[in-house]
Design goal:
Layout: H1 3-15, H2 44-61, E1 65-67, H3 71-78, E2 84-89, H4 94-104, H5 109-112, E3 115-122, H6 126-134, H7 140-143, H8 145-148, H9 157-176, E4 184-189, H10 200-208, H11 210-221, E5 229-234, H12 235-238, E6 243-246, E7 249-252, H13 257-264, E8 269-275, H14 283-290, E9 297-300, H15 311-314, E10 345-348, H16 362-365, H17 367-380
Parallel strand pairs: 2-5, 2-8, 3-4, 3-5, 8-10
Antiparallel strand pairs: 1-9, 6-7, 9-10
């Protein structure tokens, strides 16, 4: 079953069960995380003044356009004024993989951040994942279940390869850091045990719980423990002000992971979205604003000349577009919003097509795994009418 066939037949049943709720947008971004525990001891007027001055300094310190060689440094500094940075990815993008690995390899990442939360990793095997990432020996057939056995039945070999590479790189970093803090990777997919799933009715509760589970684990393991984390999720889970079409018209698409985090922990999440490599009607205008010849570049959106750009032109409407998933037949983002209301920053790589991760041949040569994926596909696909 191709991804395109899957999305066309599965979309109505999955999206149709998304709960529609109003989008809450707090003003929490006005307050500094470092002051929130002491705000009740500071006079309100003084607290507002300190917060405004500190935030203004932080914003001024971050340039509107950051060239590629400095992107990881700027993102690491961004953690000084937020607790979460969400790197929205296009599944399978080699460029997205390189950006996050450059950030994780920064010498102060383990000390100042230390946690990476990853979509599509099965939390049922968190204990094995912790041991593997810390450098302990874990049998291959056990650890690979972390990325092979998620709810993402239709995960492409490219996606599986990217997950395996990411975990292997983090493990290597921890092994090389003999002393000092280590990086932890947290699985953000529900704890599904495929040996116990034999029907679509048994599978759907796990699939429907993906968004809530991902947001909950971030709140439980990171924010409520006053920690920081890098989030690696599909861009569709992180961008704001999305919409969906219903018989009654367009309504806000909720919940997404970012919607749930913004609602419960306003001001704590900084979203970075990729701009897909392609030719756009406004490419010349965008590149004129950038005025930087060396790509890629990180573009800060809020309060800059980029803020009013049309998000439906530049921000990918679907995380799996590079893998053949069809774009929705309507604008993904609400009419009238600027790109700064969709993400806090973007990464622009130019007009050349995105590079893809080279898939590991094991995912097509392992006959037992292929047979199991076929079984899961039969379970997950909606019945024919």
């Amino acid at each position: 079953v191709s991804l395109q066939q899957y999305y066309q037949t599965f979309q109505k049943q999955v999206v149709g069960q998304v709960e529609l709720r109003g989008v809450f947008r707090g003003l929490g971004w006005l307050c500094l995380h470092t002051l929130r525990d002491t705000c009740c001891m500071v006079r309100p007027s003084l607290y507002f003044l300190i917060s405004t001055v500190c935030i203004g300094t932080s914003v001024r310190a971050q340039p509107a356009v950051t060239p590629g060689k400095d992107i990881s440094n700027v993102l690491l500094r961004q953690f000084e004024s937020c607790d979460l940075i969400g790197l929205g990815e296009l599944h399978g993008s080699r460029s997205d993989q390189e950006i996050r690995l450059e950030l994780i390899r920064q010498k102060d990442f383990a000390r100042n951040v230390g946690i990476v939360v990853v979509e599509g990793l099965n939390s049922l095997f968190q204990a094995e994942l912790d041991r593997y990432i810390s450098g302990a020996e874990v049998p291959t057939e056990r650890i690979q279940r972390v990325w092979r056995d998620s709810t993402q039945v239709f995960a492409d070999p490219v996606m599986l390869t990217a997950s395996a590479q990411l975990l292997s790189d983090v493990r290597s970093l921890n092994l090389s850091a003999r002393t000092g803090p280590k990086i932890r990777v947290i699985a953000a997919d529900p704890p599904i045990d495929w040996t116990q799933v034999q029907s679509r009715e048994e599978f759907l509760p796990f699939l429907r719980n993906r968004v809530d589970f991902g947001a909950d684990v971030i709140g439980r393991e990171v924010l409520r423990k006053q920690k920081k984390a890098l989030l690696i999720f599909g861009v569709g889970q992180l961008t704001r002000n999305q919409q969906m079409k219903t018989p009654q018209g367009f309504v806000a698409l909720t919940p997404t992971v970012s919607w749930l985090i913004d609602k419960t922990f306003p001001g704590r999440l900084y979203v970075v979205a990729p701009i897909r490599g392609a030719e756009y009607p406004s490419s010349r205008k965008l590149e004129g604003l950038i005025a930087e010849t060396k790509l890629p570049v990180l573009l800060r959106l809020r309060g800059t000349s980029f803020a009013a750009l049309e998000p439906n032109e530049f921000i990918p409407a679907h995380s799996s577009l590079l893998l053949g998933a069809p774009a929705p037949p309507f604008p993904a983002f609400r009419d009238g919003v600027g790109i700064a209301e969709v993400a806090d920053a973007c990464i622009y790589r130019g007009r050349s097509p995105d590079r893809m991760v080279e898939p590991d041949a094991i995912y097509t040569s392992d006959k037992a795994f292929v047979a199991e994926i076929e079984r899961r596909t039969r379970i997950a696909m909606p019945p024919r009418r």
